[in-house]
Amino acid sequence: MAQETQDRVSKKFLYVNRKAPYGTIYALEMLEVVLIGAAFEQDVSLAFVDDGVYQLTKGQDTKGLEMKNFSPTFRALEDYDVTKLYVEKEALQARGLSEADLVVPVEVVSAQRMAEIMEGQDVILSF
Amino acid sequence: MKFGILVNEGPYTHEASDTAYQFARAALAKGHEIYRVFFYHDGVNNGTRLTVPPQDDRNIVKRWSELAAKHKLDLVVCIAAAQRRGLMDAAEAKRNGKDADNIAPGFRISGLGQLIEAGIQADRLVVFGG
Amino acid sequence: MLHTVNKSPFDHNTFETCLKFARPGSAVLLIEDGVYAAARDTAVSKEVQEALKSVSIYALKPDVEARGMQNRVMNGVRLVDYGGFVDLVVEHNAVQSWL
Question: What is the mean pLDDT of residues A9-20?
Fold first, then answer.
């Protein structure tokens, strides 16, 4: 089952995030997949739509919840060569957010552009 | 075709495990190959041998084990998600100083890399969630 | 692309979001609680009829029947069994599951 790196095909992996952080574990465990997946040298993109955009907000302070604040991990993604983070414009606007409210540089795209990005993917992981 | 399947939810609470199982069975009946079934998030709970569901309803864990045995399927439970939720095999239990293990026949515990590998090697990856 | 939706359109925005991102020519398969979107004369039926102009919509028959919706499926939505689900996955380049 295991293959040599030079034989490994490169596929376009898209991680679709639609859930807010902390209320459920999906955001955190999605990130864990992204970090492990980074070692496989695939063409990785992350899409944030609906409440998924809330994963990226600045100023998350989880001390009162006694939960781990994992938002700094988004800044570490760059070190793993995961740089394609797409955020849906309408999702931000509906939530009164702008790019300046986000903890990491992203590409804000329209729903139509997001649909185009999604259509071009080989493997789509939803959590 | 080779299919990879990702199951994100545990047995009974969500329909995900049922749909995934029926899909896998239909795919096999059509002569396709299931490269791997990967269980993540609460999906790891599909791999405990300690369930005792009502007699008049389907036994979700048992039928995954049986399907795996019949078709030599690779059922993988994510180690990180399993550790969070208390799903152990004997080696993991020993390694972590736990006094019991509970993994069901046909399932094995491994890393998230197995999910990525399935995405790479399979022709299609299908996600079943909650 | 094949899209699957497993949530009721009255309970979650999942179906709405899926339609927003499903490009013309793609297929949408309603499964589990998602099959309620296939019912006639609901608050979302008009939206579904509109969507049928650009995407193919299918519903998973065992899920429709389990929910007693088999006599309420609107024209234009095609019922498939699990084998049909498999065929749809094979037919499309990738699957996006909207949860």
Answer: 96
Domain C2-88 sits in CATH at: 3.40.1260.10
Q: In chain A, which residues touch C (CB < 8 A)?
A: 16, 18, 49-50, 111, 114-116, 118-119, 121-124, 126-127
Identify the domain containing residue A105 by its residue range.
11-126
CA angle at residue A61 from A57 to A64, to 5 degrees?
140
Q: Which pLDDT score, from 0 to 100, does residue A9 have?
A: 84
Which residues 41-80 of chain A have a CB within 8 Å of chain B?
42
Just give the CATH number of B2-128: 3.40.1260.10
The number of distinct structural domains making up chain A is: 1
ipTM surpasses 0.90: yes
- Residue B1: list chain A partners with CB under 8 A: none
How close is the nearest chain B Cα to the Cα of A121, in Å? 11
A68-83 confidence digits (pLDDT tens): 999 999 999 999 999 9
pTM (predicted TM-score): 0.97
HSE (CB half, 13 Å, CA atoms) of B8? 19
